[in-house]
């Protein structure tokens, strides 16, 4: 089946094959064609070019973009969208003056979500998660990574990973699963850290064997997991084919970034705090730094110092961190707008960060993240006559007219 999209005002993120990420100053450039067409066969981009060279195809479905801008779908490389219920009471408690750390110390935070998740039937968890997935699809996300980490028991973690697998089977979307057993220390292991680490270590081979996860994550942070513990789990993850993607430098800088780089992590995520040593460790690394501006916004913590990182020549990706505690939104349009408004990224840099670099951060840049012949036909079409600068400018408004996944229009 062929689809020809015509009269595109601007076709964004047009790249030759082989570019898997863009760094530093190169992120300022967003390659595009004006007055363009795009040709899709089944779920794959076949060709694109200038409107004046548009082929005449009788058997193709023709979609008039009405001078809208067409860009590759957002890629969300960091979410926790499988969760039970919400944490709206903690939201109100924070407004009334409690900090995220104080709430966690009272048994709230991640342990609150873990209690709710363990009490919920798998079917109900699937239904709640599917609603969130459908919402982000409508908002233009074309591929998503989802973490476990609200089970913190063998059964709870496996339940989450099974739900992610079911979402993957039932939705036309590329989904990667990450095992985040080391998200917080459960109460029952308060005096037995070693016991909990061993529980996670025992799960890694099983999860790898049953292909329940693609990646391994650890919350490397003061009061959560130490750098040494993180290194131990990353080594085991690598041994079983679960490449690390690490939560690090959210509240404190304790050397986790250099450790993650040493263990070949695919990404290091959060980075609200970044030291000179962290910047040096990331130079030339395979590891993609990932910023999560919705989290900074929602719990009022610093934003990742994007300008400093780009100036140092580093690449940067953006993700939503969709989760009940620090970012109860998976809207990548908001993420891109907030990166522009609060992190002073240009629209070009933010779009690169939320597409091609984000695809790299979830290991799919060979097939996703740009308008490239042979890549997946996943796109966002804006309303008529929209310049792409208007996407972040009109923050909080929806400028998306149509979303395509695997070459098909999402109803
Ligand atoms: O990425 N920082 C660790 N984990 C999540 C939030 C966890 C929660 O509060 O539920 C995050 O922000
Ligand atoms: Fe997170």
TrEMBL record:
* GO CC terms of this entry: cytoplasm
What superkingdom does the record give?
A: Bacteria
Q: Name one Pfam family in it.
A: Amidohydro_1
Q: Which residues bind Zn(2+)?
A: 78, 80, 247, 321
Pathway noted in the entry: Amino-acid degradation; L-histidine degradation into L-glutamate; N-formimidoyl-L-glutamate from L-histidine: step 3/3
* Record InterPro entries: Amidohydro-rel (IPR006680), HutI (IPR005920), Metal-dep_hydrolase_composite (IPR011059), Metal_Hydrolase (IPR032466)
Family (UniProt): Belongs to the metallo-dependent hydrolases superfamily. HutI family.
What name is this protein filed under? Imidazolonepropionase
Annotated organism of origin: Flavobacterium fontis
């Amino acid at each position: 089946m062929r689809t020809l999209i015509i009269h595109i005002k601007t076709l964004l993120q047009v790249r030759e094959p082989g570019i898997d990420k863009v760094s530093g100053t190169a992120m300022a450039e967003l390659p595009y064609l004006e007055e363009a067409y795009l040709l899709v066969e089944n779920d794959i981009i076949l060709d694109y070019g200038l409107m004046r060279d548009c082929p005449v195809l009788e058997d193709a479905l023709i979609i008039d973009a009405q001078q809208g801008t067409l860009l590759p779908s957002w890629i969300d490389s960091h979410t926790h969208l499988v969760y039970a219920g919400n944490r709206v009471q903690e939201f109100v408690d924070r407004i009334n003056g409690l900090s995220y750390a104080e709430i966690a110390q009272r048994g709230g935070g991640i342990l609150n979500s873990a209690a709710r998740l363990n009490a919920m039937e798998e079917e109900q968890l699937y239904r709640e998660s599917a609603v969130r997935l459908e919402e982000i699809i409508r908002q233009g996300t074309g591929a998503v990574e989802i973490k476990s980490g609200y089970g913190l028991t063998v059964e709870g973690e496996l339940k989450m990973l099974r739900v992610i697998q079911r979402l993957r089977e039932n939705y036309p979307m590329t989904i990667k699963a990450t095992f985040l057993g080391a998200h917080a220390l459960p109460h029952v292991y308060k005096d037995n850290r070693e016991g909990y680490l061993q529980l996670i270590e025992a799960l890694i081979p099983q999860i790898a064997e049953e292909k329940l996860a693609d990646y391994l994550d650890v919350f490397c942070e003061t009061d959560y997991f130490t750098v040494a513990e993180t290194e131990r789990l990353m080594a085991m993850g690598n041994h079983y084919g679960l490449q690390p993607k690490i939560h690090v430098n959210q509240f404190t800088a304790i050397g986790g970034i250099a450790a993650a780089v040493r263990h070949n992590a695919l990404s290091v995520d959060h980075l609200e705090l970044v030291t000179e040593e962290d910047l040096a460790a990331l130079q030339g690394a395979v590891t993609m730094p990932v910023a999560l501006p919705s989290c900074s916004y929602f719990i009022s913590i610093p934003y990742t110092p994007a300008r400093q990182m780009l100036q140092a020549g580093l690449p940067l990706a953006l993700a939503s961190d969709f989760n009940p505690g620090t970012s109860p939104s998976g809207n990548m349009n908001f993420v891109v707008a907030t990166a522009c408004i609060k992190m002073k990224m240009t629209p070009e840099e933010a779009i690169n960060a939320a597409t091609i670099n984000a695809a790299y951060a979830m290991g799919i840049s060979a097939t996703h993240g740009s308008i490239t012949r042979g890549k997946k036909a996943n796109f966002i079409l804006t309303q008529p006559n929209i310049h792409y600068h208007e996407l972040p400018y009109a923050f909080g408004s929806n400028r998306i007219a149509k979303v395509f996944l695997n070459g098909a229009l999402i109803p």
